[in-house]
């Protein structure tokens, strides 16, 4: 389990915030410092499928409280989602605890973990640019979720839509800093510190175009593929957005999404007209 105090603080047990967001969705929000400097916050999202199994998106440290939460939801972890190249630090312990869970993530992450000497966790649904349109979801997962793989994103993002509640669940596609909920039990100010204030300027979802520019110029590695994926998400029905970093956008998420990704939507529309 990744419990480095430089990343998670010294007492993640007392600082985690466990909250039922909807009847089917529970979040575990924890303080997390990117590189030990940026107060990004971390969040695992646990969704209960209509079939009764659980989907755990971006697992946070597997504490006793996290285990108790899983047990309170039925205890059957059916899927573990490592949503991009960065969100995998706790994948090994969760897979060891729930060996029957099927693992979803970008294929490049499996290769990265092998090179880094991480636990040898097999990916059951490894996403690539070549297979993302052909990879069929298991029936129980497809009943409640749509999935889009952003191979055009530098971090290789896997994004979920929980269809029954209209909730977009994602890791690094967009941020919503500052991370008030994630640092609410950690003491101090979620927006304090030079590096955190800088990251808040780059990753605010509320005003201006700073995050829009950050994603367009910094995170977008293939504009056509990225924009095509954004266009598909724009066709999804959602109002709530659950990010891994920052507060949950409880309502009005679609409007925020369209503003932050307006350049990508315009790019996709222009490319479609040329085709």
From TrEMBL:
Protein name: Metallo-beta-lactamase domain-containing protein
UniProt source species: Drechslerella stenobrocha 248
Superkingdom: Eukaryota
PANTHER family: METALLO-BETA-LACTAMASE DOMAIN-CONTAINING PROTEIN (PTHR33835:SF1), YALI0C07656P (PTHR33835)
InterPro entries tied to this protein: DUF4336, RibonucZ/Hydroxyglut_hydro
């Amino acid at each position: 389990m990744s419990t480095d105090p430089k990343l998670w603080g010294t007492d993640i047990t007392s600082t985690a915030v466990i909250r039922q967001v909807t009847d089917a969705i529970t979040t575990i929000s924890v303080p997390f410092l990117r590189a030990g400097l940026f107060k990004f916050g971390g969040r695992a999202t646990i969704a209960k499928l209509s079939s009764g199994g659980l989907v755990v998106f971006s697992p946070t440290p597997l504490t006793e409280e996290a285990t108790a939460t899983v047990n309170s939801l039925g205890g059957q972890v059916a899927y573990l989602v490592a949503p991009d190249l960065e969100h995998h630090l706790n994948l090994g312990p969760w897979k060891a605890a729930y060996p029957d869970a099927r693992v979803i993530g970008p294929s490049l992450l499996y290769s990265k973990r092998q090179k880094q000497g991480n636990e040898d966790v097999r990916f059951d649904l490894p996403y690539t640019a070549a297979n993302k349109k052909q990879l069929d979801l298991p029936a129980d997962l497809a009943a409640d979720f749509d999935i889009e793989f952003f191979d055009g994103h530098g971090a290789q993002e896997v994004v979920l839509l929980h269809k029954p509640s209209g909730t977009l669940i994602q890791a690094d596609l967009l941020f919503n800093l500052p991370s008030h909920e994630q640092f609410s039990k950690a003491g101090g100010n979620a927006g304090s510190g030079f590096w955190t204030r800088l990251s808040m300027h780059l990753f605010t979802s509320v005003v201006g175009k700073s995050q829009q520019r950050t994603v367009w110029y910094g995170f977008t590695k293939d504009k056509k593929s990225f924009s095509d994926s954004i266009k598909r998400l724009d066709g999804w029905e959602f109002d709530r957005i659950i990010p891994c970093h920052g507060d949950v956008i409880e309502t009005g998420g679609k409007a925020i999404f369209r503003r932050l990704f307006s350049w990508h939507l315009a790019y996709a529309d222009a490319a479609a007209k040329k085709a």
